[in-house]
Amino acid sequence: xxxxxxxxxxxxxxxxxxxxxxxxxxxxxxxxxxxxxxxxxxxxxxxxxxxxxxxxxxxxxxxxxxxxxxxxxxxxxxxxxxxxxxxxxxxxxxxxxxxxxxxxxxxxxxxxxxxxxxxxxxxxxxxxxxxxxxxxxxxxxxxxxxxxxxxxxxxxxxxxxxxxxxxxxxxxxxxxxxxxxxxxxxxxxxxxxxxxxxxxxxxxxxxxxxxxxxxxxxxxxxxxxxxxxxxxxxxxxxxxxxxxxxxxxxxxxxxxxxxxxxxxxxxxxxxxxxxxxxxxxxxxxxxxxxxxxxxxxxxxxxxxxxxxxxxxxxxxxxxxxxxxxxxxxxxxxxxxxxxxxxxxxxxxxxxxxxxxxxxxxxxxxxxxxxxxxxxxxxxxxxxxxxxxxxxxxxxxxxxxxxxxxxxxxxxxxxxxxxxxxxxxxxxxxxxxxxxxxxxxxxxxxxxxxxxxxxxxxxxxxxxxxxxxxxxxxxxxxxxxxxxxxxxxxxxxxxxxxxxxxxxxxxxxxxxxxxxxxxxxxxxxxxxxxxxxxxxxxxxxxxxxxxxxxxxxxxxxxxxxxxxxxxxxxxxxxxxxxxxxxxxxxxxxxxxxxxxxxxxxxxxxxxxxxxxxxxxxxxxxxxxxxxxxxxxxxxxxxxxxxxxxxxxxxxxxxxxxxxxxxxxxxxxxxxxxxxxxxxxxxxxxxxxxxxxxxxxxxxxxxxxxxxxxxxxxxxxxxxxxxxxxxxxxxxxxxxxxxxxxxxxxxxxxxxxxxxxxxxxxxxxxxxxxxxxxxxxxxxxxxxxxxxxxxxxxxxxxxxxxxxxxxxxxxxxxxxxxxxxxxxxxxxxxxxxxxxxxxxxxxxxxxxxxxxxxxxxxxxxxxxxxxxxxxxxxxxxxxxxxxxxxxxxxxxxxxxxx
Length: 896
Hints:
single chain; 24 strands; globular
């Protein structure tokens, strides 16, 4: 097992695992071997040894080290300790862009520089002796990388990856090198003056935020900018060079794809990219101070998984900006001081770090740190102050020297002055970057926008405002091609996304290849990519709600299908591979295929070690097996990685409760309820804990809180009914059980509990029996109701019917010994001694020392006059009898 530094969850060790200082390793029942490069040794660990890897030694925690020998080669490549899966998503598929260049072949060893050949000498000797020496291949690949011989390194990493299938770091190396080689080979065709691209994002509505945190005008800001860039003054950008995402279209997948599309696949050294983002930005606390742009489908419970990390944008800009002419970035995301459990006012410092990239960048933020951005109808009829004055400036108002050109310096001065004045000196835009102040941003000589009356931007259709700028110009394609494009868009809108669905988007997309320009085809391909990732994200968002919206196996299976289909478009994506492993593993838990599920979920953890969702699912797989020692660390890691997510805390509380640590269970539930006080399943389950502790007052309080949060939920009323039944308040219990069934007639537990209550009253036993039969009509395998019905029938002397019910129980649960013993008693009492003997003999095979089974065997053999068999059974029962009374009774039977 491997335990990574700062995590608690042990993962199965895999051949090729790369360990870092601070990581732990445990051998199990057999020896294990480590290549320890700091000491240049091959270290063997005896069975049951635990070590911690340090910079200068292998430190023994328990057990003892085995043999060691010198390592023939020990040269490891530079790798990050924790890779961000989202940064290993769009690689070659975006790098190649529209040109699809071929990757270069490796250079023969004898054609390399003499110094490189000399450095490789010892490794080449090792490989000559053993061509399959994976450690030597890794060492050679690392040396190739050091000397920028990427094609050679790629060939060796691919060879190693074929042997070490589970080594995620090898897959990461292959991703990075393929991307780098494709970028070198790609040729981006740009006209002499370069092209202009614009990515515009405005999010006013949010799927997972309450409406009081929605914004009013961010979407309008983005659409107004779109109109500007479509105008001659803004560059008259063609449709394929302009991407606008507002509200439900502005998902994490859409924005991630858009950044990659322009920065990797489209723009070249003479091109300019404008990026405008208006919406919510935040810093997640506690524990993780990473900054995020909240997309439409971001969930504050786990921003790392669902939002767009600024670190990801920063890494992309730093990697790609040197390949792009210029980037102008306009950011207005400082809108709220509190979003759920997140309290933050600014992500300015994270945005400003984008200006540290090598390349020409101009950044303009709406406000200073600790300031909020203002919006309102006073700004042009409905805009953010920053966006409104920025647009007015680009439209010509900022042309201070009247040369008909608006440059960087003029826009900075104009916007800063106007925003401060327009907000009563409460908001002050801030610029950063290294773009020359004289770079032109707009040509005022060209026709621009009419900004004096912003209502002219709007048309009204069926009573709804429609922005005229959002209308796309007709594509320069044939009528047949346009019809297929419309079919493609209709398939996406109808969620016909998967290749096995009729008239699906995949098939239509394939039919469009060759009929569209490369840029047009990439645009359509990206629409399908985004739709597939959005669909998978919706499954994840429901998962984040925990038991508030319990998920089914089919939902996780559908998530796996969406991701698998997306991988057909982006086969190099480790991000998608991790999510597919998660969905498949979580679906297998429903089938109780726990080893296979755990293997897949561990793979998901390896690919995305910052993903709380996989740790939580891994913990569930262990919890279902009552393996609390492994479940608890997994839930703790999930909670550490997503400190605002309540579901891992709920699962942790369940595990604590099952181990008898009720105090820790209660603390976990209390913490979860502070994070998501709107979720009713949390107080409901806390009530169950208090009821188990016989603290009825607290149990009732939390059941009633759950009921208040979800008035239509049946479970709290059922729990309250059971509480009243235990207190002897039968009338109140009956009323609550019936209320639960009114809320949800499918709640079998409530009908079963009501039947138990009625069965205690002799004159209502028929009602009880009918309730149990109703449960069995709805769910024939609901064993509790069948057992109770059988017991009632037996007590009322309806032996034949009771026997039939017990046989049904054993058909479904042949291991149910209590049912088998009860059946044997009924058979014996009805004169079917042979049948009783058969049932008891079967039971004895499962539990050969059970005194109740053995004594009954003796009784049946006695009835059947099998003296020897009866004696043997009684003697065995006597030997295993639990107490003096049982021994006395059995001796009496032996002495008859």
